[in-house]
Amino acid sequence: MNILTRDEGTGSEYARIFRLLSAAKDEAQRLKLHNLTHLTNMALLQVVIDWDGIDPERELDVNLEKLIGTKTQVAMKDASENLVLLDCH
């Protein structure tokens, strides 16, 4: 049985953080803020590592790029249920 401590998040919390960081990364790329883009990429990677509870130093065969893709799909699927798009044009 998995018991969550106060420091651990649920999947939906990780998905929300992932979406927020992804939006920040997209905006940083649009504004050509390369350092911020790099930092948000690092933060996204850390969220994925924490989300799955993996230790990349011990699990050398983990394909982090594939894992990020999988988590992107999960995070965006969760968002579609609660997402409202506003067209400001």
Secondary-structure blueprint:
Elements (H helix, E strand, L loop, with lengths): L10 H20 L3 H19 L11 H19 L7
Q: Give average pLDDT, whole number.
A: 80
Please give the alpha-carbon distance between the first and last residues. Answer: 50 Å
Rg on CA atoms, Å: 15 Å
Q: Spans with pLDDT under 50 lasting ≥5 residues? A: 1-7
Q: Could you tell me the number of beta strands?
A: 0
Write down the overall geometry: globular
- Structural domain tally: 1
Quickly give the structural class.
mainly alpha
Q: What is the H/E order?
A: HHH
Largest sheet: none
Question: Number of DSSP helices?
Answer: 3
**Beta strand %:** under 5%
Short structural summary:
This protein is mostly helical and 89 residues long. It has helices spanning 11-30, 34-52, 64-82. The protein has one domain (10-78).
List the defining traits of the structure above:
mainly alpha; 65% helix; single chain; 89 residues; globular; 0% strand; disordered N terminus
